[in-house]
């Protein structure tokens, strides 16, 4: 080999799982496809559009698999994040978040030349920037007004505030008011099914009240979009949302796994980090080659996964930058050998995808494909 | 613009700081260069080699600036991480960690064809893999035996265990025993100067005892390497280490900033994340465009930085995936305007660098250069 050196791929189609160079992010395709099918079927049964959130996976191949099953488009959370999905041919994208400033408005306006694009607003100055940029680019853009239904993050307070922004939008012929964005992330991880049901009901009620007040003022919302993987069963049944935007259901994570999913709509762990035992000391330790730089730990440490379940023997107890420390649940039990591969369920899927360039798609003990996580790092 | 769309750069040389598209990782060059100069001068005054840890920054331009000032080489933590530094012409690299398995051994052996390379071992099977791979590649490789001086992570227990591995190494003419790796990460963030001094003294004493026992057995350690940014003043003065490997001192982070640096060797915050206010509600909120995907929060939330100090008015209180929530320290004070840029000091520099593709190098209010963070994501 001559300079510049290139890193060999972590895996190639056809490889046995044991041949994957670790750490590597894996998607178990059978479970993943069952997750996609279940969500699509539930949305169709409810007569609600499914617009999965691609901020979770950042992977065009996954978005295309979602569209193929009937998703109406995707959400992204940042303007830059849309780029690889536009390049991959996704025809309809919602930036489910506000953008600020002329540079981002110019990017949004350029994206709108290539795709049916919507973006959220919660302030008149965002509308002014987008109006100027779309006028310069010659593009058409749909706007959703975000309403605050309890997150106290982005969004306006009530129907009159929505109405005031709609008046601003209507001053620009290339902009179109399309409806409302209403998302409440904080309830997605309420552990009990009944608590989540009640909280989602409250969120839908607040959203519905704004829709009703706008209708009374003569303003029709073509789209009311929101919901997430933790509440989607209730969001679909609410009669308020015309569209739901779950993301994490594709692969789930350890944190979502701690939710009690008592209802019929359940999803399986399909996302794993393959790691290897890289040090064993004198047989008294188990150190993995995967830490903070391969796994997001903001929502808790990963689970160790063995034969379809959380390991009954091993527990991942601490993440250093590049190392994971594993303890035995029962002292004296056998430890994994140096070099043995262990699969981990990441604590939080979204920022874990954001650490990896490639997703190794596996099925029946073999690598089937390697999918680029093309929007990894696109946070502008 | 035609497909495929490309994301414009966050900044170009000559841009005003206000023109930087956020979130973007910044390096304030004046403070950065003072940090490099101070560390190099301290190492030279102590007669100890400086081998900065590139796992902190993953940026070849920074490594070259360190070498230019007299660093003897760099450390990396993973075999794959070495690749962009080899490609950039760094002549001497220590992989300060164990590698496991034939795929990684093959990569190490290939790297050793292009650079003076050392790697750590703590088990005979790692040596066997490296011996086979270097024999196949026709390369020469130096090995350091890692000793456990209290981290209880990697490393062997004592001098006899080192000696046993040295015998394995000596069976292979293309492998060379070069000395000891001895690192104690857990003491780097002890807050009090005296506690850190005592803990570093204990670590150096344990390391020195192994060196002495090996010498008594006729084994000379050409290199004894260890230490970090939190303890480097004591590591340099210990008389035990021939080489130190601090990383974070280049830019510091909020967590290191909480250490009490009573001694003469202090470093400045030079690493910032530029973010923008993207939502203000009805004037009652401040939401930034930078959350978990732009900033590592494993060691705490970022500080807000204003005019060379932690902000007296604003506090970053929570990180969502793509949003940061900012509160006022005193209710009723003025809030930053929509679109205003705020600079954050990341809680933990190493995994924050690992989220970004580019580092915007700034000086005197202007962008001076954009440096690729080429080893970002290289965790294998």
Q: Summarize this, please?
A:
Two copies of one chain form a homodimer. Chain A is α/β, with parallel strands linked by helices and 380 residues long.
Give an overview of the whole structure:
Two copies of one chain form a homodimer. With 380 residues, chain A is of the alpha/beta class. Helix content of chain A is 28%, strand content 24%. Chain A is built from ten helices and 18 strands. The mean pLDDT of chain A is 97. Chains A and B meet through helix 3, helix 4 and strand 10 of A and helix 3, helix 4 and strand 10 of B.
H/E topology pattern of chain A: EHEHEHEHEHEHEHEHEHEEEEEEEHEE
Largest sheet of chain A: 10 strands, mixed
Name the chain pair with the biggest interface and residue counts per chain: A-B, 81 and 81 residues
**Percent of residues in β-strands of chain A:** 15-25%
The geometry of chain A reads as globular
Question: The CATH topology of the largest domain in chain A is what?
Answer: TIM Barrel
**Total domain modules of chain A:** 2
Architecture (CATH level 2) name of the largest domain in chain A: Alpha-Beta Barrel
Poorly predicted residue ranges of chain A:
none
Derived from helix and strand composition plus strand pairing, the structural class of chain A reads: alpha/beta
